[in-house]
Design a protein that fits this description.
Elements: H1 3-7, E1 10-14, H2 21-34, E2 38-41, E3 55-60, H3 69-81, E4 86-90, H4 93-97, H5 101-114, E5 119-123, H6 131-143, E6 148-150, H7 163-173, E7 178-182, H8 188-197, E8 201-204, H9 207-211
Parallel strand pairs: 1-2, 1-8, 2-3, 3-4, 4-5, 5-6, 6-7, 7-8
């Protein structure tokens, strides 16, 4: 894979809660220089001024996922109305751990209905879940109309993306939904391993380092 091809997999991400306006401006400048697909910023930072070729992504119910579905839907709708092309929502992890996948689906659908014209990515926090729960959450996301499933927030102490999790997600919905690997992807080899496992998008805060190996 060529460097510019790998760059188009990347959501160049800045979600640290202490990030300033100057940090966001730097992120956008880096995105333009690196040729990444999008920037991903906190919803309170919207709107942002980006080059035409760079998409804008944000997060919803982040990072815990424990927000009420109505709050997630309202947050997503506000984000879409202030310039977000894509929204990465966190599922209610308690529903998944309880194996209540109808509730997981309902939570996702509330956000989907609120942003019919934006790309919806569903963060599963796969390190917290069993293999069976990861698969069931992928099925719920597909039923609810999501566009992507995503491994991780990158903030949970249980860990971030793994090749195994991406393989599970690919087996469940690959070819129908996009698969985003996020959390702990800091070098070229890890990024390529995630793509080989089935990832179609990468969430990276260390995008320059990820691209440096090509």
């Amino acid at each position: 894979m060529k460097r510019n091809e790998l760059a188009r997999y990347i959501d160049h991400t800045l979600l640290k809660p202490e990030s300033t306006a100057a940090d966001v401006e730097k992120l956008i400048a880096e995105a333009a220089e690196l040729g990444v697909y999008s920037v991903c910023v906190s919803p309170s930072r919207l709107p942002v001024d980006v080059p035409a070729e760079v998409k804008v992504a944000t997060v919803c119910g982040f990072p815990s996922g424990a927000h009420h579905s109505h709050i997630k839907a309202a947050e997503a709708a506000l984000a879409a109305s202030t310039g977000a092309d894509e929204v990465d929502m966190v599922i209610n992890l308690a529903f998944a751990v309880d194996n209540d996948f109808e509730a997981v689906e309902s939570d996702i659908r509330a956000v989907r209905d609120a942003i019919p014209n934006a790309v919806l990515k569903v963060i599963l926090e796969t390190a917290v879940l069993t293999d069976e729960q990861v698969t069931a959450c992928c099925v719920a996301a597909e039923r609810a109309g999501a566009d992507f499933v995503k491994t991780s927030t990158g903030f949970h102490p249980a860990g971030g993306a793994t090749v195994h999790a991406v393989e599970l997600m690919h087996a469940a919905v690959g070819g129908r939904l996009g698969i985003k690997a996020s959390g702990g992807i800091r070098d070229t080899a890890t990024a390529l391993a995630m793509i080989d496992a089935g990832a179609t998008r990468l969430g990276c805060s260390s995008s320059a380092a990820v691209l440096a190996g090509l």
